Amino acid sequence: MRHPLSQRIDGVLSLDPAAGAIQFEHRWYTWGQVDTVARRIRTVVGTDRAGIMLRNTPGHVAALLGVLAGGGTVVAINPARGDARTRADIKALRLPTLIGTPEDLASLAPDSTATTVAIAGLDDAPQVRVGARGPVNDRPGVAVSMLTSGTTGPPKRVELTYDMLARSVLSSGPGPTELRRGVAIVNSPLVHIGGVYRILLCLAEARPFVLLPKFDLQGWADAVREHRPRAVSLVPAALRMVLHSDLTRGDLAGIAVVTSGTAPLSADDADAFTAKFGIPVLISYAATEFGGGVAGWTLADHQKYWRDKRGSVGRANPGAALRVVDEHRRPLPPGQPGLLEVIPAQLAESRQWLQTTDLARIDEDGFVWILGRADQAINRGGFKVMPDDVRSALETHPAVAGAVVVGRVDPRLGETPVAMVELRAGGHADPDELLTYLRTRLAHYEIPTEVVLTEAIPRTPSGKPDLTAVRAALH
Q1: Which residues constitute the domain of residue 29?
Q2: Which of 107, 154, 260, 397 has the most crowded Cβ, counting Cβ within 10 A?
Q3: How many CB atoms lie within 10 A of CB 468?
Q4: Cα dihedral: 122, 83, 85, 151 (round 10)
Q5: Distance CA 369, CA 140 (A)
Q6: When comparing pLDDT for 31 and 153, which is higher?
Q7: Is the pLDDT higher at 112 or at 438?
């Protein structure tokens, strides 16, 4: 029997083939066009694995949906990681089918013996070149083999099952019988869990959407003005771009709520956004390994508790469980800091606690504060420095657009914090000024030993700082 998620994809794609499904670069593509390409992909892949070199285009959306509609496994390949690494990844995966643009297939898999499917868009049929038969899919329940964001090292592969994704995006009861009227905006990269989740949520709700190739302030603002969505999602880096732009309340008049996750967002930035635009910011906590979110703010909680609980990432999502433990994995009482463990709703039937690398505390009302990553804590001569505390302080400076803090080896102290800072357009500050600014906001041992200004902080496709690249630049 086909999985409910596969059935939902088929059902929604056939609701109204002539209606607009995806607006991309100011042009609408219909549900029928998406369905035609998806069915061709499904015919080629079946229930096997298929590597998709994912980019934010309508053709790649159709390829993603086609594989999932057929019960196959999408193996996410990030063509932006660099040609050499991507070629090595493709070679190691030994995939029976590779899907991508003609240019990506030619440059990243020129010698592949796999079946290849070239997708140029939704106006033309995919071009199939049949290759040698690859290994049989021995994990038929896996929907997406997804790359983690790779902020601290090489991305890892996490297997997201059909059941996990269905629990994230499908509501109980029958599927929709007509298309939704409102238009969503998808600006998260498809190669990241956030992009896959947004696409599947729109599909599950039968909601048309604007697809942005990447987050671009002008393109995003144009889409917001045109479609006036009630809710939008912005990663912290994008939210700060909107906050410090020339956009006004009128530009964002249709938005009732902003959700933000994937990376830490300071309470000051959330409050500043609300003060400028009159829109509450609902912070959430998620990870690729969880198959989506596990905690977050609801609008009702925000209205009741934000003043007292600001800085929290909210409470456990329905069906999820969170706890804080010590180094021996013994649960700690409310308010005590320790390592966070999670049972996501997507994996609730397992009842197994997943240990994260995040330090956290949970108060008596169930609100969760993420204190930083245990594996990123900087031990400066016996004093523990949390990079996010230093970053947050730097980002309160009016000239700072973004900052990232890492540890640098020191022969006397073991490690010291160093910072990379990106200034706002038109902003002016030198390293000495920023260090003086921090001295009234941080303990002496938290002050970076060096602040380096940069035109742009290196980031992963999900918008998080690429800590590997930052360390290489600062060492």
Answers
A1: 4-169
A2: 260
A3: 16
A4: -70
A5: 37
A6: 31
A7: 438
Nearest to 120 by CA among 93, 143, 100: 100
Structural domain contains residue 438? yes
| CATH number for the domain that contains residue 431 | 3.30.300.30
Q: Which two tokens stand for residue 315?
A: 């409470």
How far is Cα 303 from Cα 281, in angstroms, rounded to an integer?
A: 11
pLDDT digits (tens, 9 = 90+) for 82-139: 788 889 889 988 899 999 999 999 999 988 889 999 998 999 999 999 988 766 777 7
Last residue of a domain, one of 169, 193, 216: 169
| DSSP for residue 245 | S
Tens digits of per-residue pLDDT, 305-323?
Answer: 999 999 999 999 998 999 9
Closest to 469 measured CA to CA, from 453, 460, 461, 458:
458
Contact at 8 Å (CB) between 64 and 84? no
pLDDT at 462 over 90: no
Residues near 193 by beta carbon (within 8 Å), at least 6 away in sequence: 146, 160, 286, 288, 291, 292
**CA nearest neighbour of 69 among 59, 57, 80, 61:** 61
The alpha helices in 376-451, defined as continuous H runs, are: 387-394, 431-438
Query: Which of 135, 169, 203 is at the close of a domain?
Result: 169
Average pLDDT of the residues of the chain: 91
Q: Is residue 213 part of a domain?
A: no
Cβ 2 vs Cβ 71: under 8 Å: yes
Provide the domain count of the chain. 2
β-bridge pairing 400-410 and 142-147: unpaired
Closest CA to 109 of 130, 135, 89: 89
At residue 158, the 3 state secondary structure works out as: strand
Q: Which two tokens stand for residue 304?
A: 């009741």
Q: Using CA atoms, how far apart are residues 207 and 197, in angstroms rounded to an integer?
A: 13
- Smallest CA-to-CA distance from 259 within 320, 369, 191, 185 is with 185
Look at residue 153 in the predicted model and tell me its pLDDT.
54
Q: Is residue 388 part of a domain?
A: yes
pTM above threshold 0.85: no
User: pLDDT tens across 15-25, in order?
Assistant: 999 999 999 99
* Residue written as token pair 């949970």: 362
Taking the C-alpha atoms of residue 384 and residue 89, their distance in angstroms, rounded to an integer, is 37
CB-neighbour burial class of residue 293 (10 A; exposed 0-12, middle 13-18, buried 19+): buried
* CATH code, 91: 3.40.50.12780
CA distance 22 to 236: 25
In a domain, 229, yes or no: no
